[in-house]
Write a structure and sequence with these properties.
Elements: H1 5-28, E1 30-36, H2 48-58, E2 65-70, E3 84-90, H3 104-113, E4 117-121, H4 133-140, E5 142-143, E6 184-185, E7 192-198, H5 202-205, H6 217-220, E8 229-236, E9 242-246, H7 258-271, H8 287-291
The structure holds zinc ion.
Pfam family, one: ThuA
Organism: Limnoglobus roseus
Protein name: Thioesterase
Length: about 300
């Protein structure tokens, strides 16, 4: 039977209305590149490979993101960064930091100048004072400085959070981790918003820290002063790019804590300029998930 003109128009409208929408959704997906560092510790610690795979799994429901994982260190082919909106570097840092070695510092700086977001996790927030520290402050607002910052194992009580998209849905929590503090931030904390803050007990300031054991006089001098320290922060760059530093992430099992996980997942959206849901990124992690993909036992 011949379709009436009205029916024909309605069918056409549906077709035309749907296709551009699908096309737009595809092109609007932001690419997030998760880089996992090489194994360096015993089982359960610095599980960068398992960590990024867990985070990627938790982000599967975020339609606005296309997540690409790079395991076992810096990508062999830098083409993986083509079109990236954000990068996570969850890896050992210091002199071997994946983003500063060889000619990478200039390459990554070029990406940052284009507005690509960057988040560094755990040891990944540390670079040598004279190689990459200036850039890290520009990229993510601050970095760990050897013998200025410290790295005790402790359990900060995160009780209140700033009015910031990364805080959405995050509830008070406390987990024991190697939470570094006393970062070397940008002058006057310009453009830097502390996200996770807590007051260390005097016994934490007294050490021992993980390495070097300390204690440092300048860390101890704040004892009894109720001085909050920053373990996670968000930074806006003058050109609109975004950066985040997160000093936890030593202990793999901590990904099982919902708020610990949520604050990181929210941050990954935020650096890519994806709107963080009102209650934050929802995810579920099982005991099996926490045991999955761990680096081979005893690998150093
Ligand atoms: Zn560690």
């Amino acid at each position: 039977m011949k379709a009436t003109r009205r029916e024909f128009l309605a069918a056409t409208a549906v077709t035309l209305g749907t296709l551009p929408h699908l096309r737009a959704a595809d092109t609007e997906r932001k690419k997030l590149v998760l880089i996992a560092g090489t194994p360096s510790h015993g089982p359960g610690d610095h599980e960068f490979n398992a960590g990024v795979r867990l985070l990627a799994k938790c982000l599967e429901g975020v339609k606005e993101l296309e997540v690409v994982t790079v395991l076992n260190g810096y990508p062999k082919d830098e083409k993986v960064f083509d079109g990236a909106a954000g990068i996570l570097c969850y890896a050992d840092g210091g002199g071997g930091h994946p983003l500063i070695r060889d000619k990478r510092l200039a390459f990554i700086d070029g990406l940052m100048k284009k507005g690509v977001g960057l988040m560094c996790g755990h040891f990944g927030v540390e670079v040598p004072k004279d190689i990459g520290a200036k850039e890290m402050r520009e990229w993510i607002g601050g970095c760990y400085e050897h013998e200025f910052s410290c790295n005790p194992m402790w359990s900060p009580e995160f009780k209140t959070f700033p009015d910031h998209p990364i805080s959405r849905g995050v509830k008070p929590f406390s987990v024991r981790d190697e939470w570094y503090f006393n970062m070397r931030f940008r002058e006057g904390m310009k453009g830097v918003t502390p996200i996770l803050t807590a007051v260390p007990l005097d016994t934490v300031r007294d050490g021992p820290y993980v390495y070097p054991k300390g204690p440092y006089k300048h860390i101890q001098e704040a004892k009894g002063k109720n001085q909050a320290e920053t373990m996670m922060w968000a930074a806006d760059r003058p050109d609109g790019g975004r950066g985040v530093g997160f000093s936890g992430g030593h202990v793999h099992r901590n990904w099982g804590n919902e708020s610990f996980r949520k604050v990181v997942l929210n941050a990954l959206l935020w650096i890519c300029k994806v709107e963080v849901p009102k209650d934050g990124v929802e995810s579920k992690v099982t005991e099996d998930d926490l045991k999955a993909n761990l680096d081979p036992k005893g690998k150093k």
